[in-house]
Amino acid sequence: AGAVSFGSKLCHTVAPQAQAPAAEKLTIYFWTRILHSLPTHHFHHPFWSMAATATTRAMARLTLPVSTSSSSIGLDIARNNASNAMRRNFATSASPRSFVTRARPILSNQNCDLQRSFRRAYADVAPAPAKKPKRFRYFKFLWRLTYLSMIAGVAYLGYGVWELRHPEEQFEPDPNKKNLVILGTGWGAVSLLKKLDTSNYNVIVISPRNYFLFTPLLPSCTTGTVEHRSIMEPIRSITRHKQSAVKFYEAEATKIDPDRKVVAIGDNSDIKGATSTTEVAYDMLVVSVGAENATFGIPGVKEHSCFLKEIGDAQKIRTRIMDCVETATFKDQSSEEVERLLHMVVVGGGPTGVEFAGELQDFFDQDIKKWVPEISDKFKVTLIEALPNVLPMFSKQLIEYTESTFKEEKITIKTKTAVKKVTDKTVEAEFTGPDGKKTTEVMPYGLLVWATGNAVRPVVKDLMQSIPAQKDSRRGLAVNEYLVVQGTKDIWATGDCAVAGYAPTAQVAGQEGAFLARLFNTMAKSEAIEQEIHELSSSLNLKPGNAAEIANAIEAHEKQLRRIKDIKPFHYTHQGSLAYIGSERAVADISWLNGNFASGGGLTYLFWRSAYLSMCFSTRNRVLVIMDWLKSKAFGRDVSRE
């Protein structure tokens, strides 16, 4: 009560416009000093809390004249301290509820401010912030690097899409330049087309399919892990981005005449126009038509097997898988017939056969079992290989790892087994034991996939017969170290249709196509330099006064010509082998320095995906493949019929 009375008297005494007597000023000053000297916890008492409220409000309203006297200076300091105290923002400990009356409600509201006003002087200085540990700074840097990388990646992706959708204007072909005809749109042909300077030639591409197919991911299309459109790149999107225009004819080459330098082509589409056959003249010809599936003359293979080389083959396999599943669940189906329908046989222990077997087992374990649980114990995959082991191009430890993984996945491997006969429901195979004894086994099947062997296409076989130097070749066109077809001067061959002493793989074909692109670019430059030398030599007789300058120019061009013509023969550089073996595992045999680096498992599976993703031809393919992987992981593979 005394504090309230004193506060009221004090407020009336020091009104904003009133001049307080000196005695009252001193009273206020001493009260301020007393309150300031009290410990902080005394302000929890209601008396001191209300006294501090009244004193602070009085000091804030007090108007003092300018004076140099000691008392005025002291009051000035007190008033400034009170004013500054009211503006402090740092928090204090909560105080208990103060005595509140209707006459002075401000006392309760400013209770927290009073505690801030009369804290000790050492509380006025904010403590120095503690230094964050280094690990937090590292995470902060890592986070910044991550989102900056994401921004850069999105920007790069956007630029790639924009560039793909906005091709530049092209030069029209020059009829005075040589005609370079490329047969095929496979790995060799597309690698050549990608690196070729088309302004040096009139380039013509002929192929029965108007797209490039990324074959390493073709086994994933059979089960729906990747959609087939995601690994197809339209050939016109490749030719449209070249500097000079490239002509493309969707047709099949039926005959090559090396004497007349023409290629006979025919339209193989369902809709044909008035002209469906014609001839295309060439000055330079590149044969990159690939190979057919080899059946080795085994009865029934061509009629009853599914191959795995084209998009149509993958779609046929996908349809056949669902046919077997739905037929196996038909009412009153016998158990023997169900086991036959759900027995999938893969012939060929190379990367294609192994990857398809792994994809097929994943499809059944991860998707079909969930939706058709009644056949979960009937599904079976068998891999047949004539050699002693699968994946013969890999190291021994990776072969053993693959076989052990297949054993865990319950995939049966039959090595040293040769197929002898195929019917619509059975496969007859001959097994060679360790002692050399041969036994025959008949296996019923629902799906048979033939993933082994290459055969020469008819157009290549016809060309080989017309060239005497090719009479001893059986597996394709024999070529020299510059990939020139032996017995010719203006025909080159790449890929599976060429016999260059290397394995018929996409990696070899891609390097062969890139080599031919460099070779043709160099040939065009050398021809241009030779033409300039010829013109300078002709002008030497017409302008004898400039003989020295012309001679120096000719000598410089000859040096440049010798340097350009120094082209080394083709040399294949093996970069390694990859294969998916199922259950999100893969094997990799990578060439590293002077040796090989062998790896297998889950991390290798991530490397397998990243490697194939980087090998995709365009940004469009990469984006679509990533979306397919995410979709199949989140929602599973589609089990509906196409």
Automatic annotation (TrEMBL):
Gene3D superfamilies assigned: 3.50.50.100
Question: What is one GO cellular-component annotation here?
Answer: mitochondrion
Keyword annotations for this protein, in alphabetical order, are: FAD, Flavoprotein, Membrane, NAD, Oxidoreductase, Transit peptide, Transmembrane, Transmembrane helix
User: Is the keyword Ribosomal protein assigned to this protein?
Assistant: no
Domain named FAD/NAD(P)-binding: residues:
179-513
From the UniProt record, list the reaction(s) this protein catalyses: a ubiquinone + NADH + H(+) = a ubiquinol + NAD(+); a quinone + NADH + H(+) = a quinol + NAD(+)
> Could you say which EC number(s) this protein's record lists?
1.6.5.9
Care to name a GO molecular-function term for this sequence?
Answer: NADH dehydrogenase (quinone) (non-electrogenic) activity
SUPFAM superfamilies, alphabetized: FAD/NAD(P)-binding domain
Highest taxon in the source lineage: Eukaryota
**Which residue windows are transmembrane per the record?**
141-162
External alternative NADH-ubiquinone oxidoreductase-like C-terminal domain: residues covered: 574-638
**What is its EC class?**
oxidoreductase
What family is reported?
Belongs to the NADH dehydrogenase family.
Protein's UniProt name: NADH:ubiquinone reductase (non-electrogenic)
The root-end lineage is: Eukaryota, Fungi, Dikarya, Ascomycota, Pezizomycotina
